[in-house]
Amino acid sequence: MPEKQRIAVVGAGAIGCVVGGLLHRAGEDVTLIGKKEQAEAINRYGLRIKRAEDELNIDVKAATELDFSPHIVLLAVKSQDVKDACLAIKGPAKDSVTVAMQNGLRGDEEAADVLGEENVMGCVVFFSASYLEPGTVNYTKEGSLIVGSPYGHHEKARQAGDLLSRIMKTVVTENIKGARYTKLLLNVMGNSIDAMTGKALAECSADTAVRRIAALVIKESLEVIERSGGRPASLPGMPVSVLKPAIKLPLPVTAFLLKPLLKDETQESSTLQSIKRGRPVETGYLNGEIVRMAEENNMEAPVNSRVMEIIGEVSQSKNFVSTSELAGRFKEFF
To answer: Residue 131 maps to which CATH number?
Structure first.
């Protein structure tokens, strides 16, 4: 590969804009591919990334479709949009390394079905960002990335990791599936609580009943993953040797231990952002993944099924559930 690679970020939402914008600022040749209003705003005014300490204004290119052959594609669309996005770029990206940056477990596989296993790397995103308005995103806390090949092409994963390490801490792993399992545990809990209540996790952290619901979700999810043969792996700053025993403690204890974790999360989840913007949610790839695994292995996942039911209602009505009402909806599981 040449020293300066052409990079296409397919999915110029919050995550894609942060990664693509920072890479362009670091000297890489980046084009953001996104919706028309987003592309027009970025081309006209530049990309604005608001951070806790400052605001970056980045003169990066944007377009609505991929019309060149990139060396690397950073695929940052929502989980439910992976297949369509890969079909749309299949021609120009047929020889590209594509890094799938979705939540859930299926993004790598769905991308590989279209683009080929040898070309698809997986990436676990371990930071939060939010869309504010066309051309502007919020990135309040520095995060990290985990990159790996689900299909054994580790040299390509290292190349992708070297690129991404230019903008934030990036770990290259040979067990990307394990990292995805652990991120899924965090997503099924965090994305569900704030999506049901409309409140950031930090705001919910003081409520004992809500913490118990969060504990119920993560407990059931870990049990389903492990009984299905999944093996979660450590994430930066979150060793699985500590996380798993904490999840398996009695419900009140796990709920108590979750308090500092929830209190530290002030950013709205991607699911809550989607609800507020009237966009489809990816709950089917998060809590729905747990329900699917349970069904495939002759188990039940009633807590995650209830979460999906409530988020479905909230998505349709835009009426969030109060914490007291939420406690009533899960009382039978306490």
So the answer is: 3.40.50.720
Q: Is 170 helix (H, G, I), strand (E, B) or coil?
A: strand
Q: What letter represents residue 324's amino acid?
A: S
Q: What's the rounded Cα separation, in Å, for the pair 227 and 104?
A: 18
Out of 174, 208, 226, pick the residue that ends a domain.
Answer: 174
User: What is the per-residue pLDDT across 246-268, written as a single tens digit (0 to 9) for each?
Assistant: 999 999 999 999 999 898 888 88
**Residue 264 belongs to domain spanning:** 178-333
Dihedral in degrees, nearest 10, Cα atoms 215, 216, 218, 220: 150
Cβ contacts of residue 110 below 8 Å, gap of 6+? 82, 83, 86
In a domain, 1, yes or no: no
Q: Who's near 13: CB < 8 A, 6+ residues apart?
A: 34, 38, 76, 77, 78, 131, 137
pTM over 0.70: yes
Query: What's the alpha-carbon Rg for the chain, to the nearest Å?
Result: 19
